[in-house]
Amino acid sequence: MASATGSRAAAELGLHERQFLLQCGRHALNNLLEEPWADSEMMSRIAERLKAQREAETGHALFFNPFHHWLGRHVGNWDLMVLIEALKTRDMIIRQHIIWNPRCPDRLDEDLRELRTDIDAQNRRTVGIIMNEPSDNFVIRLISGHHWYALRPRRESPDDGDIIGGSPWLNCDSKLTRPEPIESTGADCGSADVLDHLLTFLRERTRSKNAQAFCIVRDVGGGGTSSEVQEIGT
User: Fold this and answer.
1) 79: closest CA among 152, 20, 28?
2) 3-state SS, residue 189
3) Tens of pLDDT, residues 140-168
4) DSSP code at position 190
5) For burial by CB atoms within 10 Å, which of 47, 175, 207, 230 has the most?
6) Which of 87, 89, 85, 66 has its CA nearest to residue 77?
7) Nearest alpha-carbon partner for 34 in 11, 17, 14
8) Rounded to whole angstroms, what are the CA distances from 155 to 29, 91, 128, 161?
9) pTM here?
């Protein structure tokens, strides 16, 4: 009975890909949209196109593709630019890039307030958030350096439904056995709403884990990526 209950609960939380090799970038894209739309073949084609563009810009041939692991696409380690181009194929862009800068500590809270305003104002456009976090494991850090994972709201329908009010956002990290609700703990959490919990999570991860958050929205205007983002590995 407990197993059946757990299976139903997992099904209600939608698709959740588990970590395989260094494919966290692909898992983040699929977990974000609750469907297995991104595969290694598609992402490899994007990486090859980006490599060709880099070679044309620099005038030098690249022995390895810098947009995935040097051992090949089957390993993963997808670059941010691959994720951006993959999202564009689904008419999605990065709306906001949030980082912690100790030289401008007030900027983080400003960015989080802007994120909350955007989510409130653009309910149906907001897809979710992709996180990039330095690996805790020293050995893994030498191999890949960073880990991608997705945060997403629960919706009336996965495709284009309204965000379910009062339902916590989900942490869809592929290292987890299933998505986990993002809920803060502490004395003040009782009066907090679901976005308060989300912003607390983002504040803690960006400050203590040196994580970066990329807010993903539907590109209804066709204007392309609106935020300035850095090229970082996975």
Assistant:
1) 28
2) helix
3) 655 667 899 999 998 876 666 677 778 89
4) G
5) 47
6) 66
7) 14
8) 17, 19, 11, 6
9) 0.85
* Residue 198 burial (CB count, 10 A): 24
Are the C-beta atoms of residues 210 and 53 closer than 8 Å to each other?
Answer: no
Q: Which one-letter amino acid corresponds to residue 128?
A: G
Asked if residue 145 lies in contact with residue 233, where contact means CB atoms within 8 angstroms, the answer is yes
pLDDT value at 121 more than 70: yes
Q: What one-character DSSP code corresponds to residue 28? A: H
Contact 26, 43 (CB under 8 A): yes
C-alpha separations of 30 from 98, 134, 154, 173 in Å? 22, 21, 15, 11
Q: What is the CA radius of gyration of the chain?
A: 18
Evaluate whether 234 touches 148 at the Cβ level (below 8 Å): yes
The 10s digit of each residue's pLDDT in 89-116 is 999 999 999 999 999 999 999 999 999 9
- For 4-59, the pLDDT digits (tens) are 444 444 556 678 999 998 889 999 999 999 999 999 999 999 999 999 999 999 89
Q: What is the pairing mode between strands 92-98 and 212-218? A: antiparallel
Token pair of 48, please? 């090859």
Structure tokens at 198: 């989300």
